[in-house]
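Open question from group meeting: does this chain pack into something compact, or does most of it stay loose? Before anyone orders reagents, we agreed to write out a predicted structure and look at it together. Recording both the input and the output here so the notebook holds the full record.
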Amino acid sequence: IDQGTDFSVDIDIYADDGSLLDITNTSFTGDAKKVFSSAKVFSYSMDKIDPGQGKLEISLSANTSANIVPGKYQYDIIMTSDSNVKSKILEGLVFIVATMTDVG
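Structure tokens returned:
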């Protein structure tokens, strides 16, 4: 993710049987930290763009990314069902890359 720019990615969420999962009655949270034991550095915004077909948009605004120190961060995305079952649907590393151009 380039510091000071908007970022978004659309993901498809699948059920165990390989079909697209209906995410209409679910909620999502996603945070990033420098290391798993440290404080949260930033959170993603998540919007259901086609919930019946399991489509979720994960995004970070330019205002948010501008205030993140460049470097490597760990992240995960948690889905909570309408019956309050929590599942980790995505995890990994994200890199914030310094932007040389003044985007202010």
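Observations to bring back to the group:
The mean pLDDT is 94.
The beta strands are 7-12, 27-33, 40-43, 45-50, 55-60, 71-80, 86-96.
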